[in-house]
Structure formats: C-alpha cells, structure tokens
Amino acid sequence: MLQRIQSVFLFFAVVLGIVIFLFPIATFYSDTAFIKFFLCSVRDYAPDPFNEMSATGQAVNWLYPLALSILQIIIMLITAMSIFKFKKRMLQVRLNYLSIFLTVLLVGGIFYFSTTLEESFSTQAQYGIGGIFPLVSIILLFLANIYIKKDERLIRSANRLR
C-alpha cells in the first residue's frame, strides 16, 4: 500500500536526496576566491586571469565530492527500494536504519570536506540550504520508521485476536 504516511515520508526523503544536488552546501569567500561547494562538485566563481582553480595554487582532493555524490545516490536507491517493500515491514525498517546510518556518514563527510576547504582557502564556510537537506532526510526516515513500527504492532495485535 503506497498511500501510507510512511511512504510519503520516504518519498520526501528521496526528493530531498535529489534536490541536494541542486543547491550549494557551503560557500567560501576570500579576497581571491569565491567557491561554492555542491554535493557533486566544487566550483570557483571568482574571475581568475590565469585559469587556475585557486589563486594560491593549493590542490584539493576533487574526487571527494564524487564519493559524497555516490554515497547520496546509494542512499536514494535504498530509500526508494524501501518504499516498495511495504509488505515486508521489518525489512523496510532495517533499510531505513541503513539509510539513516549512511546519511549520518554523508553529513560527516560533508562537514569534513567543508573544513578541508576552509583550511585550503583559509576562509570561513557559510553553510547554505543544501547542508540542511540530509538532516531533514534523517528526520523523515525516523518518522517513517515510527509509523512502520506502529503498523507492525497493529497487524500483530490483529493476528492475536484471530
């Protein structure tokens, strides 16, 4: 039954997982750089006459946003798969806990990479709305688990009455 409230929570968690790719997670301002950190890339919007990534020439591990993007795609796939496992509620709960764990890892990776960028460009990060989406996704996954467990208790109590 896809019309359950937990399916709506899971659907919104998947939508937030898609939308996080569109908004910047953090922005870094300095005298020579204007960097926006998206989940899939780090973009420099400052005009640079020498066509280098940063004015200081410091190299940052650019494969790290790729790892965060792959992790987010895995989270979205697990959450989407969890929507369609409505007949196996306990498996659905376990998949949601796995998604929560991976989302916590994603948030840790985002803040680790943000501090790495802060040190590389010697600026202070200003976090944008993209950094809030994984936290809202964790809340939605917890709410979905609450309602899935509520359904499971209801079905077990109905089975006892038979």
Question: Could you give the topology of this structure?
Answer:
Elements: H1 5-19, E1 26-29, E2 34-37, E3 42-44, H2 64-83, H3 89-121, E4 125-127, H4 133-161
Antiparallel strand pairs: 1-2, 1-4, 2-3
Structure description:
β2 and β3 (42-44) form a beta hairpin. The two termini are 22 Å apart. This protein is elongated. The chain has one domain: Butyryl-CoA Dehydrogenase, subunit A, domain 3, CATH 1.20.140. Residues 54-59 have low confidence and may be disordered. The protein has helices spanning 5-19, 64-83, 89-121, 133-161, and strands at residues 26-29, 34-37, 42-44, 125-127. The longest helix has 33 residues, at 89-121. It has four helices and four strands; from the N terminus they run αβββααβα. It has 162 residues and is an alpha+beta fold. Strands 3-2-1-4 form a four-stranded antiparallel β-sheet, covered by helices on one side.
